[in-house]
Amino acid sequence: METRRQFVLLAFVFMSTGNLILSHSYKRPPARKTLFVPLEENDEPEQISFWASIPSPICIIVHISMVGQDRMRISWITKDDITPIVKYGTSSGNYGSSATGTTSSYRFAFYKSGNIHDVVIGPLIPNTIYYYVCGPDSTKEFSFKTTPSQLPIKFAVIGDLGQTDWTVSTLNHVSASNYDMLLLPGDLSYADYVQSRWDNFGRLVEPLASSRPWMVTQGNHEIEKIPIVQKPFKAYNARWHMPFEESGSQSNLYYSFDTRVYQDQANKCGPTYITIGDGGNHEGLASNYDEPQAAISVFREASFGHGQLEVMNATHALWTWHRNQDDVAVAADSVWLTNLSFDPACKV
Length: 348
Fold this sequence. Notes:
The chain is 9% helix and 30% strand. The strands form 5 sheets. The protein has a 6-stranded mixed beta sheet. Strands 2-3-9-6 form a 4-stranded antiparallel beta sheet. Strands 5-4-10-11 form a 4-stranded antiparallel beta sheet, with no helix packed on it. Belongs to the metallophosphoesterase superfamily. Purple acid phosphatase family. Its EC number is 3.1.3.2.
């Protein structure tokens, strides 16, 4: 998202909006500087030109994502060429199953990435904790919990995450919530051509991204195109593989979802729009809104934080917005959403 769109705008589109206008005077302190996340003891850097002669534990910058209904993709980076294997099981230290995958790498100007490994494991049991290690010789154990097979299910939602102190605050609040899956709709690392920032971002989010599936999409900060020299989305496509093939897409930039468009008209059968772009990136907040405020724009506020979408049953879901006020999560707004497919007036 562009800087000026980094705000929370919940445009609840329905006939009875009338003249309902809500706006908060909350003022957020200035943006914070980009963080450097140091390597842990015995960890190895991920950029080839910076390799050091130190022990390497194999499993570095781990993140996971769902593949279909009962599988999970495990992604990680190593210095050395290894067999891309993941061993896993439902009890700590006991890995009764294993799967192998693929390895790739990429170059960006003078940067060469480490070996990026992707392994899809499964079938997996819903709502179950799995323990896993990456690589044939790794002893560093990770764990994740699969999503439930029945409702309710809770999504944590972050936009424009970046890698600042505010990002850390947002991630801390997310980790304290009992969510099943994280959605990040664009603008992940704010690397902006500096490829080592992708490595730094991976280390920053690993504690969360290795324990719950992260489903992400690209934003303008992932483009990183250099005419003639570099194609767009090179780092994003190499590092964050989404289930595009399983959903019939030809590109990692798109995997399936369905939506409806109602030409900007207030209609009780129209969709609910939630624009979120304030996870903590270095660009700071945009508090200059279009005036006058549109009648269908019910709530808008400039603050850092994250959203939670809890699908309770087939007809109702609860959206809540949690801002990072004074490093304590504050629920600044909430709304119940109704599945329009159950409304006879909204049948198409």
